[in-house]
Amino acid sequence: MKLAVQNLFRHRTRSLLTMLGIGAAVAVLFSVLSFNRGFEAGLERELKGTGLHFMVVPSGCAHEVAALVLHGAVIPKFLEAGVIDDVNRAEGVSLATPILVAQMPNPQGGRIDLIYGVETAMLPDIKPDWEITGAYPAAANELLLGYNVALHNGITPGDGIRYPGVEGVFTVTGIVAQTGSQDDAFIYMDIREAQAILQHPGGATAVGVKLTDPVRMQEVIEGLESRVPGIQIVTMGQVMNSVSTVAASARSLSLAVALVALIIGTVGVMNAILMAVFERTQEIGMMRAIGASRWDIFRIILKETALLTMVGGIAGILIAAAGSTLIEGFVRRVMPYMPTGEMLRFEPLLAMGCVLFAMTIGLLAGFYPAWKASRINPIEAIKG
């Protein structure tokens, strides 16, 4: 081991660059795997946080439905009149709340407001994880504001908001604590008020449904689909699959890039060790001449490879941990959807697995140089 360490220090620059190559590959690999785990956990947490079992929406794209369920995307379709009554009458439904999501001009504030119309009394059931400063709306002319809306416009509980064509003033009763999601950008109001302002009486973009017995979900869904035309029913599990599919291509590409980088780093290790072997041919021949076995030579070269990849792998983990905030910020800008919460977290077992994987690949790369060194003929090597 001492000889292996000394040999690496003979060419510090070459060894350092080889380690950095391995480190960069391991950093990318660890970041991608850590992100995948955090993404799945965050998505599952958000779906559980909806407090609903499935959504009834107009027939259309599953990705639009996923966007509506998870962060209130505006869908330019409305459920037909009577759908809400049909859902409420279905056996096994304990909660069915219409939801109307739309954009609305606010000339007073010089902005476009995102309106989330809902039966406000059911908000604690739909969003059980929210923390509220103030109180939930209790009357038709009361509003609940998302964190960003309140922050950017300097609105506090008790302030009033006016909308064109609407008599009276809406009173802000509460502010939702920051969630880090699209929930922060919405203004929540009674759905009947939203329908009146948007001139869509009885209109809704979705119906959120909670069941008395989730075990009977498939039975309830089949019953609704057979009785009510023009609807699409999406469970929270299907939403997870839909969003995961959208993000899968980006994650797969990142993982492929990480593996390619690791292969390139491995080739760099093989090249560095082979160069070291060729430069030390006479030295290895002298070691053989004074009694070193082929196995001794093989072990020395293999230990050099193991040291390079191990130190490079550890450096890569440290780089990923130090730059996790920057990496996550970049991913959030390019991904089509990201759950709230921290995606990149340091997990010791995952870090250890990445380092061991890099060492395994590195040892395989070092096998040929080690074998080549062990086959050097001592007499011919000393002669030069």
UniProtKB/TrEMBL annotation:
UniProt keyword annotations, A-Z: Cell membrane, Membrane, Transmembrane, Transmembrane helix
Subcellular localization: Cell membrane
Transmembrane segments: 16-35, 253-278, 307-330, 350-371
Protein name: FtsX-like permease family protein
Annotated family: Belongs to the ABC-4 integral membrane protein family.
Domain named ABC3 transporter permease C-terminal: residues: 256-378
Domain MacB-like periplasmic core: 15-225
Record's signal peptide: none
GO cellular component, one term: plasma membrane
Pfam families the UniProt entry points to: FtsX (PF02687), MacB_PCD (PF12704)
Membrane topology according to the record: Multi-pass membrane protein
Molecular functions (GO terms): transmembrane transporter activity
Classification via InterPro entries: ABC3_permease_C (IPR003838), MacB_PCD (IPR025857), Macrolide_Exporter_MacB (IPR050250)
